[in-house]
Amino acid sequence: MGLLDKLFGREQDEEDAGPFDVESFSELNRYLKDNRCVVVEFWMRGCSPCKAMDAIVKRLAKEYRGKVMFLKSHFRTEIADKYKVKSVPTFLLFVDGKVRKKKRGAMSYEAFKNWMSGCVR
Question: For the Thioredoxin domain, which residue ranges apply (predicted)?
Answer without folding.
Answer: 1-121
